[in-house]
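Problem: given the chain below (147 residues), write out its structure.
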Amino acid sequence: MELLQTGKRPVVASMAVVVREDRLFLVRRRNQPDAGRWGFPAGKIEFGETIDTAAIRELAEETGVSATAGKIITAVDAIDYDDKRKVQHHFVIVAVLCRWVAGDPQANDDATDARWFSPAKLDDLDLAAAFDLKAIARSALNASQHR
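Solution.
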């Protein structure tokens, strides 16, 4: 596995983990990593943009849903390798707990579908595999109950 690639750096991204009445908001990803799988809306943080602002912007761009940003839940690595175990993509994704404000789910931009799910339904979905999405969901649900 080739880990060091001169001049390469991870890309920092923000992820909107939206909780509404004990349901989680997920999108089916259009692009890699994890294309075709369900995950939280996420995207690259632009230069000069805050983590919170990026999470809310990506959520709106991908789904048309509005939310307010809360606390940071965690940060995870999402690393893709080719068949020779060479790193193709490396994202550091900061998960932000968000509270739904308005909007019905619409798949836009980087999403092919967008829906609300109960926590129990996560076991039936083809979830993003680059990190432990269920652990982030559990943390978000726990944190949202203690606001």
